Please model this.
Amino acid sequence: MPTLQQPLIVVTDLDGSLLDHHSYRWDAAEEWLELLQQHNIPLVICSSKTAAEILPLQKKLGIDGAPFIAENGALVQLDPTERMRIPADSIAYAALCQTLSVLQSKYRFTGFHDFTDRDVSAMTGLSEADAALSRQRDASEVLVWRDSEEAFEAFRAELAALNLTLTQGGRFWHVMPAGSGKGEALRWLLHQLEGEPRITVGLGDGPNDGPMLDTVDYAVVIKGYSKTPVSLQRQDLSHIYHTTHYGPEGWCEGLDYFLT
Model:
């Protein structure tokens, strides 16, 4: 088991993990957040949230300026001056929305681009101000599927032909560039970070967290609300822990298990 005295990086999902699924609060995790800061252990956010949402949250958490992964791995910020889409040649958000608008003539779905801030607030429980931040997207689109399962599979196939893919988050489906994702983004980010190798501990609760949890050294699968369970490819069971608690309580439970 790793210890707080070793060189570590903690990589965390937000909604349903560090943040409560319903209230978006992290009170239960404050003691662990302080411990990580005391031991100079970087906390890397790896979330479906946008950069516009993550930046003010980093300030509240006391980790502003730290690298982060946004939009389920379609966007990475190394530092306040360097932000890039993953893969680097993927299309920008406006072009992605244009592509999806063409497909809306064949399939019934609605994207965040089509919603108002009030609509998103009503669906998520976010304030309208925070909902506005969630709609400031750079590299991926969030959508609500309103068609059949059969149509969904045809939709997925059409996206694949356009070099796009679907990822399931805690609440919505996310349309992303092929070759992106939390696992790919994290591997790219860790390769960029200089210095001595660090042991990585990852925490997540949703099916979209699986690739990230397969990438880290130690994986905490937080009990979640998604109908689709987190599926991991790794077989090193001693490096995987499934929590009995949800949200930030489960987040602390996982760190307690591996680091104390």
Observations:
- DSSP finds nine helices and twelve strands in the chain.
